[in-house]
Amino acid sequence: MSAGEVLLWIIFPYVAIATFLVGHWWRYRTDQFGWTSGSTQLFERKILGWAGPAFHYGALAAVGGHVIGLMIPKSFTEAVGMSESTYRWFSAIAGAVAGAVCVVGFAGLVYRRATNARVRRTTSRTDLAVYFLLVVLIGLGCWMTFGHNLLTKSPYDYRDSVSAWWRSLFILQPDVDAVQDANTVYQVHAIVAWAFWALFPFSRLVHAWSIPLQYLGRPYVLYRRRYAASR
Amino acid sequence: MWTNRPGTEYVWFNNVETAPGQGYPRRWSDQERWRGGWELDRRGRLRLRAGGRVKKLLTIFSNPDLPSLDDFYEPWTYDYETLVTAPLSDRDPVARPHSQITGQPMDVQWGPNWDEGLAGGPEHAIADPHLADIQEQVRMTYEQAFLFFLPRICEHCLNPSCVASCPSGAMYKREEDGIVLVDQDRCRGWRFCVSGCPYKKVYFNHRTGKAEKCTLCYPRIEMGQPTICSETCVGRIRYLGLVLYDADRVEAAASVPDPQDLLGAQRSVFLDPEDPAVQAAARAEGIPGDWLDAARRSPVYDLAIRWGVALPLHPEFRTLPMVWYVPPLSPVVGTLEADGYEADPDDVFGAIDHLRIPLEYLANLLAAGDVEVVRGVLHRLACMRAHMRKREVLGEEDGSLAQHAGMTAAELERMYRLLAIANYEDRYVIPQAHAELGERLMQQQGTCGLDFAGGPGNCGAVEARPDTSSPVVPVEGEDFHLVDLLSREEHRGA
Ligand code: SF4
Ligand code: SF4
Asked: In this predicted structure, what is the pLDDT of residue B441?
């Protein structure tokens, strides 16, 4: 293992995870006021009307796909009797649909941000960084899904390489061997993803943690006392 | 007042619009379009007009009912710089308008009160949703045109659909004084409150990404002072007072099937502050004595309930709004006097149907279309006017007008004093908040809780009015804990 590999496949991921955790703790404690979706719907509603939902639903589906692909080891799917080819077609087709929807929505959002002067002016440097990372991540992700899975005769088996390494990080036994010979596209995707997670708590992406599911179960009208301590 | 900040350039917590006119944002009262407020479902239960909770969460990435900036207007400023720096020329330099949103030069097409005073005439005024069913009668000719002004702030509703629409639970109604507020720390910018409010009185701050609304100037109210918009109203038309109500009856009142029954239902939620049973119950709930006293002297209770001359704006939205309006009388009496009707109350009554402002218009605005309600109020006001005129101008004491109004002469005269003399002390009966009820009070001393970065700004100007006996005078910048102070005093006194 060279020093570069240690840096890339061990140190960098752990630094990113630490930044992710500490960053969220810090942001949540100090910046409730800045914790928002940062919506620009007030400025432009036509393109957002289709691009916003497409991007978000596509991205949520993609997140779900990653959870399955990364967390569930091959041995598990085989144990429950799912053949390699069934899994491949499931992941390829579902991934392709999610990716396509996400790309269409994302393209709409980028176009909107670039061409609408009102929206463009709200764009911060962090937003630009997020957009850049998303372009790379989504671009590589689709390349992998379409080029190495859906439209190829010999799909790339990421579950024995990248996924194994990813899981190994969380049991504190980084399996660098599994990843260092992996397909380069997958490698770059993984590295950029860690950068993305490190940036996450400092960007407006944090609104993702605020999906207000509690709304489903609470009374409609809320009351508060001015001074919670009394009574 | 509170919206002079980046992000809220287009926001008016308090706006005064011309009626008839489109209003702000344009055609806000058209709920077919904006789907704000509540409606009844097939089984007669209350539900948000914009759809249920699941639908809200599914459309969270793009709220289908959100007005866009152009429905309000694009705020602008002028390039004043050129006036100073323009080179010598035969022509005067011109300061061009620049958008405050994009910073670029813009062609101003619409703005705040663009149609003020019927400017733009038939084209704009006729787009008023309140005219939809009476367009036949209303002619936008010079001889027949009518107009009045409608001041609008947040209604601080008893059944606020903005609060119900907020998925984050960031909005709330304060138990003590009913003020509806947005918790700036918990708002996540989902924007459903903006579309959920049928009065379009929650606004999205595009700089902070949070919702903001009229706060009823709560730092002032807590000090027993009127809101800024009331205090500065030169017409002295605003009144502030508290009313006691039964929060448990709100939902039933908002659910009565016929929209025209909503006025009565809402009035039935209020409790009579003179009723000993109500007083006892209020005391048991821990409502302080001076608040009960203020409830008995409340000008709002007088106008809205005791005399019934004030009406809620658009009761049919089912939010049980709490800013009530006395329908305009002057044009009425103007016509009456010119036609010599005034002496006979029956004529007062007859003439009310020939007003410059059509009763139907006022009814669409204030009574869910129920013309009789508006007619009754105007009749009472006309009786008051005639009664006072007789007494003051002709020197006649005539009890019959009061009788026609269904009131005693003394009450009628009290109403006159409240409406026409409108002394400061009578218009605003605001008890101070009770500091000692909260252990954690005044943690925010000297900050008033609004002047965080990007917040509505410093309101350090809050002081007790000189004529109050309150010990509460904030000390700027000092770590001054009123509770400690009060409890120390109490111990000393005891
Ligand atoms: S008027 Fe005020 S309290 Fe009522 S729904 Fe609108 S924002 Fe909420
Ligand atoms: S009550 Fe205060 S915040 Fe609300 S509109 Fe009036 S001045 Fe503005």
From this structure: 45
CB contact (8 A) between residue A225 and residue B174: yes
Q: Which residues line ligand 1 (CB under 6 A)?
A: B 154-157, 160-162, 180, 197, 199, 201-202, 213, 319
- Binding site membership of B2 for ligand 2 (Cβ less than 6 Å): yes
Closest CA to A110 of A95, A120, A118, A100: A120
Write down the pLDDT at residue B118: 84
The minimum-distance atom of ligand 1 relative to the CA of B156 is 3
> Which pTM does this prediction carry?
0.87
Query: Is A143's pLDDT higher than 90?
Result: yes
A216 → closest Cβ in B53, B164, B187 = B53
d(CA A70, CA B18): 61
pLDDT at A231: 38
Q: Which residues contact B227 (CB under 8 A, 6 or more apart)?
A: B153, B216, B217, B220, B221, B238, B240
**pLDDT of the residue at B4:** 83
Enter the tokens of residue A56.
Answer: 């978000």
Dist CA B182 CA B193 (whole Å): 10
Report the pLDDT value the prediction gives residue B464, as an integer from 0 to 100.
Answer: 34
pLDDT means over runs of 10, chain B (494 residues):
86 94 93 96 95 95 96 94 90 92 93 86 80 69 78 97 96 95 96 97 96 96 95 94 96 97 97 96 93 96 97 97 90 50 54 80 95 94 90 88 92 96 95 70 43 42 34 35 44 40
Is residue A217 domain-resident? no
Number of domain units in chain A: 1
Whether residue A106 lies inside any domain: the answer is yes
Q: Tokens for B490, please give them.
A: 């109490």
Domain B220-433 in CATH 3.40.50.300: no
User: Which of A33, A204, A225 lies closest to B176 in CB terms?
Assistant: A225
CB B162 within 8 A of CB B328: no
Distance CA A36, CA A210 (A): 9
| Chain A residue whose CA is closest to B437 | A230
Residues of A in contact with B8 (CB under 8 A): none
Domain encompassing residue A184: 3-210
Q: What's the token pair of residue A153?
A: 């005769």
Check: CB of residue B1 under 8 Å from CB of residue B97. Answer: no
| Domain locations in chain B as residue ranges | 15-72+114-216, 220-433, 436-494
Ligand closest to B221 (CA) is 2
Ligand 2 contacts CB of residue B229 (under 6 A)? yes
Q: Assess whether the C-beta atom of B430 lies below 6 angstroms from ligand 2.
A: no
CA distance A86 to chain B (A): 31
pLDDT at B138: 65
Tokens of B58: 């599914």
With contact defined as beta carbons under 8 Å apart, do A17 and A197 qualify? yes
Give the ranges where B198-317 is alpha helix by DSSP (H).
Answer: 218-221, 228-231, 250-254, 262-269, 276-284, 289-296, 299-300
- Domain B15-72+114-216 matching CATH 3.30.1490.10: the answer reads no
Q: Which of A94, A87, A112 is nearest to A58 (CA)?
A: A94
What pLDDT does residue B437 have? 61
Average pLDDT over residues A94-121: 97
> Is the predicted pLDDT of residue A185 greater than 70, yes or no?
yes
Q: What is the CATH classification number for the domain harbouring A100?
A: 1.20.950.20
